[in-house]
Amino acid sequence: MRGDPDSRAVRVRFAPSPTGFLHVGGARTALFNWLFARHHGGAFILRIEDTDLTRSTEQSVQTILDGLAWLEITWDEGPFFQSREVEAHRAVAKRLVAEGKAYPCFCSPEDLDRKRQAAETDGAAWKYDRTCLRLDSAEVMDRLTVGVPAAIRFKVPEGPIAWDDLVHGPTTFDSAVIEDIVLLRSDGSPTYNLSCVHDDIGMRITHVIRGDDHISNTPKQVLLYRAAGVEPPRFGHLPLILGPDKKRLSKRHGAVSVTEYRDRGILPETLFNFLTLLGWSPGDGREKMTRAEITAAFTLEAINRKGAVFDEQKLEWLNSQYINDLDPTRLADLVRDGLKTAGLWSADLDTPGGRHDWYLRVLGTLKARSKVIGDFARDLRPFLSDEFDYAPDAVEKHLAGAKGGGPAAVARRMRDLRGALAQVGEFTEPATEEALRRLAESKGEAAATYIHPLRVALVGRAVSPGIFAILTLIGLDRTIARLDRLAGFLEAMPAVQG
RNA sequence: GUCCCCAUCGUCUAGCCUGGCCUAGGACACCGCCCUUUCAAGGCGGUAACACGGGUUCAAAUCCCGUUGGGGACGCCA
What we know:
Blueprint: E1 11-14, H1 24-39, E2 43-48, H2 58-70, E3 77-81, H3 86-98, E4 102-105, H4 109-121, H5 137-146, E5 151-154, E6 160-165, E7 169-174, E8 182-184, H6 192-202, E9 207-211, H7 218-228, E10 234-238, E11 241-242, H8 258-264, H9 268-276, H10 291-297, E12 308-309, H11 312-325, H12 328-341, H13 356-367, H14 374-384, H15 392-400, H16 406-423, H17 429-443, H18 448-459, H19 467-474, H20 476-497
Parallel strand pairs: 1-2, 2-3, 9-10, 11-12
Antiparallel strand pairs: 4-5, 5-8, 6-7
Helix pairs in contact: 1-10, 6-7, 9-11, 12-13, 13-14, 15-18, 16-17, 16-18, 16-20, 17-19, 18-19, 18-20
The protein binds one RNA strand of 78 nucleotides through helix 4, strand 5, strand 7, strand 8 and helix 6.
């Protein structure tokens, strides 16, 4: 009931201020609006709230647009720029003054700051003291004609303010705790609450869905709707996204911008799905869902009232699931840039007939254990280049360790293995596996004592996909070369170790 | 400080509106076992929560009140 849209077609908006990047919190707000619109076949409108000219930048607008596009949160109308409506906003403020619902305020920001600070040291709550409301009209005229800078304040009427929140249910404020809202700054520029209400009316917004941090703005806006003689839209306040310390997610928690997650190798479908699960669930236990499934299941009444901690580990888990589902061609597209910066890229990886098919097979074996796209540049190195280091933990565990009998014993096994592998007719997984196992058996040793050092020789690490898959992907010649390189390394080891 | 919001495993949540099916279900993480070739992946299993106190009721995680705790807002920012 709470969330059911009435007979009017649903019209919602996302209204970011372009003063930085697209924050995941903002993205989630956009997402829920988008989902609500799509679920009800309504319109999703994008409005850029750039009324703070000193902080708004064109670059930030672009970043926000890019972030939304990347997440495929598409808008039906806009982007509209709030700054274009400035004249209309001023007219509204002037009309309110004429109607006696607002008044000029000559208090300087410095004066107000001083009073605020004084109140704070007294431990008292600060609220504008209406100094300028008490001015007689002659005094006001005098100051205005002399050109004393004046802001316009809305005269907050007495009485309770209530609305039925789409998420929280009935919510009430006493107007006694609300100070007279500044509508126009002394330089004549409109402020947030005025602009927001005016534009929402103009755009015929039916549901305002935004973060919990806006709850205290809502009574002010309800007042402005009343003053305009317009029925307010429905309001729904989303719980905040929190950091691990349960405080509002912010930069000090690490990555918070959509772009950072993209650059780190989180897939857009992952972030979309994950953000959706922060404060909402379909109620039937499903977690990994397509956007169509999410859209179909989405309702506002299923939204939680409690803030949700952004769990990076779960995000990466979800991402690993999505990576595993990726088709090889798209995966190759996603990995390409990372390979280029790592200097591992060559055109024949993309050329059918070149190493393309082989490359796709390599990607296929690696993807099951990858959490982020960035993992691939690291894991692909031993396949695309002969230049890679032996990881210290792998050296210690499988080359130097007493378990393998020390470097000399390892060297002997690898020498034998080199010979055995060279004898293999067809260099396939079963054939190489059989050769290795037969060798180990003939020596009365565990296959693992051959496999581990071999892995270090081939990829330089203690972890990898199945060793025989790697072996065949790397091929006989390069395997031999790598075993030789390992032999040299082992020989030098005692000296290196001191 | 004032106002507002919130309260189920460490985390995301199901259940709450319409009390009984809840000795509270799922997922991430963690631990163990299996598979095995190490880690991972996969399979199986385990540890782990109704903040507290009153009340209503035959019966409360679910309804009411209070306490405590947490968060947010208190701008001529949006």
